[in-house]
Amino acid sequence: MSIDVDPSNLWKNAYHFPPQGSFLVLNWLGVANLPPPLNPFALAANLPPWLFFTIYTPVVATLALLAMAVFLRELELPRPAALFGGVIYAWQGDILPFVFPGHYAYISTWPFFAMAAWGALRAQRTRHWAYALISGASCGLMVGLQPDRGSIASLLIAILYAAPILRWPREWPMNVRHLALCAGVALLVALAALLALFQSYIVGVKLGGEGNREETYKLVTQYSYGPEDTLTYLVPGLLGWHSNNANGPYWGSIGRTVDWPKSSTSTRNLNLAISTTGTLSAVLALMATCLLLPGRLVGPDRMTDQQRFYGRVFLVFGLVALVLSWGWHTPLYRLLFELPLMDKWRNPLKWLEWTNFALVVLSAYGVQHLMVSLEASVPEIKIMRRRLMWFIGGMTALFGISLICSSNYLLGIVLMARLQAMDYEPAAIANILSTVHMSLLVALVLTTSLWVLLIVLWQPERLREWTLDNPLLHRLWQKMLTSEYLPLTLALALSALSVAQLQWVAGQFIGAVQLNTLTQTNPLLEELKTEGNQVRVSVAPQDPVLNVLLQNQFNAENISCLDISAASRLPDDLHTFLKLFDDNHARLWLLAGVKNVVVPQEFMPQLQHNPDIAANIAHADGYTLIPTLNNMPSHALVQMRDYLAKATFVPQAEVISTDDALLKRLEDQAWNPRETVLLKSPAPESSPHPSSNGTASSTTDQVELTTYTAREIEIEAQSTKGGYVLINDHYDPDWEVKVNGSSVPLLRADYLLRAVAIPAGASTITMHYVAHYHMARLNLPVEMINNFSDGTMIAAWMIAGVVLWRRKRLTA
User: Fold this and answer.
1) Cβ contact 114:103 at 8 Å
2) Contact 559, 194 (CB under 8 A)
3) Tens digit of pLDDT for each residue in 269-311?
4) Rounded to 5 degrees, what angle do the CA atoms 572, 573, 579 make?
């Protein structure tokens, strides 16, 4: 069950050929839905939802495991260490628990992240350009799947190309060529996605509709990773799970703004995901850090020069990314915010993309070091083992002391006081303390298990003396404990322990429910569904019940609603239009064609005491959506008497040259939207279009909407003197309009609605949506650009595959 994205609405992300855009009117006054580029997620979105959720995510996780294992092998790590790294990579918080908030495309980037990194290292080692081609195609796919996170991941790939120049200066021409090829291919593959990003989220769009730069900074950094949240890498669950988890509510600082008021009435936080890689992975990464720093605190190692160099690269940039993820908690992010476009880029915690990748790599380094400690013939083996015991024993002691201190008799008292100050209920405080204790206990058990596991595997002779009754199991047991297979036994045991913890973590975020519970209907929905999408409904999204309906069932039932459950980015014109009527909902509902309003019953007095709304109420019906006392209806469906139809004939126009004057006129109660359309510039004069029947003999002005879809609109109109047909949907220049077979301009009316000028007599108006990417003064057809990007990606994979296959045959 997703909390942030409608699971039944995957079809919006599905890939179709040829790629075409559509205009969706399910929320607001409609917005453009540009076609997704070709990628695995867009293909999988064509599956039935139940098949998508039961198949796609496990497949992606498996591919991520394999890709990461291959990359770690390229770093010359032994197979068992690479296997462990792949398992952690596939089970990390950013893949499986991230199903809960519902940003499924993000999950899909992780296999390509590892594949792009593999291509970068492989190109450096073999000096062959085909691997840079693979790396570029992978980066392009990541950006196409998730532009912000994909771009962050691609920056790390660029660092993997550029960093070797510092160590091997003579190699810079080759590295620069490979980096240029990778970046060029990535840009072409992601071209369609980047154009869509700029058009939908950057140009003419502000975060939360906010124009003040300081307020924008607060919105940009709202989802900053709290420095205390870093501890959840070592102890997942230490600060709770997510904000909607009743058994372990999140009580950290993610979701707060820089000026968050520390009072019982302020919003505490909002956290819906977790980025942990688990206790053992974090402990092993710390061990590898000690090896990479001067002094080798945990003993001699067997790192190659390449491993040591790239280990330090990942260590440095992983730490840098961690600090950047802290956002407003440090002054560093203020400098980043000053860079171009960073006022459009939200959520500093996305920088954990680098941190997680680096942690997985370093944890694999840690496993390699433990494998060395299994070899009794290694010089100074006693010193190495003793230092490892001190290190792991120290971590175990730390968790044990923390568990004791978190009891109600020590630091637990301080924690309880803090939670009470944050206005948590006693039951929630008890659940939080229980989660803290359980999280520390699990971390303690894992490090203790690691300590015991090493002691046992350092002396496997005693285990070999065990006899199992089953001959097959006995032979397997004996083989596992031979010196040849001890490293694999260690890696599998560590993987099993880690997966047990990460499965427990994922279970806090993924609660399986029947899909029909998110799409099930009720009498209220049935009533709204019969209206079709030619009228709108307005709801009170602050009501939890209506918010869930708006998030799920409204989309599933194709119910057109003026409101939306959550939106971080609003087009400027829509924001201005909606904000204009904050205190005049009656006027907004009239212009937007709102026929029905759904509110909780306790909201009804507010509607009835507003004279403009009350005068327009035809009737109100009660519906029980949640149990109530005395079986009284919990919600009301209010029907409006007067509202603009989807298509309305307006006889005349008024030209207003400035936006401010036009907005002021919209609020003027003397203005009648059925009598006059408001235009910013006069309708261009054109040759008269004869009526469809060749006469102008209609006796009344009337409009009939015969076709209304996401790409096609057809209207039959009759007019005695000519005029305008107003469509109360958001203006979009990509609607191509014809009146009686002749092309005419689409007019922007009433600030952001659409209008078409028609002659006297009978007219047939057809509107066809042909989406374009608007860049500067260029209008680029989305079908052409998307086909170009998709073709580039396919060509890159095919060329690289053929070239490397021929190269392998020649060297065989």
Assistant:
1) no
2) no
3) 888 889 999 999 999 999 999 999 887 777 777 888 899 999 9
4) 90
- β 702-708/617-623 pair status: unpaired
Strand partners, 747: 755
pLDDT at 694: 47
Sorted by sequence, the CB contacts under 8 Å of residue 723 that are 6+ apart come out as 649, 650, 651, 652, 701, 757, 758
Q: Report how far residue 63's alpha carbon sits from residue 65's, in angstroms, rounded to the nearest whole number.
A: 5
pTM equals: 0.90
Spatial separation of the C-alpha atoms in residues 229 and 237, rounded to whole Å:
10
**AA identity, residue 21:** G
Task: Give the CA angle between residues 532, 593, 639 to the nearest 5°.
Answer: 75
Neighbours of 567 (CB within 10 A): 14
Could you tell me which residues come within 8 angstroms of residue 576 by beta carbon, excluding any fewer than 6 positions away?
A: 209, 663, 751
For 72-82, the pLDDT digits (tens) are 999 999 999 99
Contact 595, 639 (CB under 8 A): yes
Angstrom distances, CA of residue 438 to CA of 195, 403, 739? 47, 9, 69
Strand blocks (E) in 304-417: none
SS3 398: helix
User: Would you put residue 723 in left (φ > 0), alpha (ψ -120 to 50) or beta?
Assistant: left
HSE toward the beta carbon, residue 87, CA cutoff 13 A: 25
Count the alpha carbons within 13 Å of 620 in the hemisphere toward its beta carbon.
21
Please state, in angstroms and rounded to a whole number, the distance separating the CA atoms of residues 39 and 196: 15
Rounded Cα distance between 755 and 751, Å, is 11
CA distance 102 to 119: 30
The encoded tokens of residue 694 equal: 């060749």
What b/e readout covers 345-361, taking b as 16+ CB neighbours within 10 angstroms?
A: bbbbbbbbbbbbbbbbb
| Bridge partner list, 679 | 655, 749
Residues 6+ apart with CB under 8 A from 236: 93, 274, 276, 278, 279, 439, 442, 443, 501, 502, 505
Q: What's the rounded Cα separation, in Å, for the pair 576 and 329?
A: 32
Each residue's pLDDT tens digit, 517-560: 766 788 998 899 888 888 999 998 888 888 888 887 887 788 89
**Would you call the peptide bond into 544 cis, given omega within 30 degrees of 0 as the criterion?**
no
Pull the structure tokens for residue 227: 């420095």
Collapsed DSSP state (helix, strand, coil) of residue 617: strand
Residue 255 CB contacts under 8 Å (≥ 6 apart), including other chains: 222, 223, 243, 267, 268, 269, 270, 271
CA separation for the pair 392, 384 (Å, rounded): 12
Record the tokens describing residue 760, joined without a space: 């006297």
Angstrom distance (rounded) from CA 138 to CA 153: 10
Cβ-based neighbours of 158, under 8 Å, separated by 6 or more: 179, 182, 183
* Strand-pair partners of 768: 712, 736
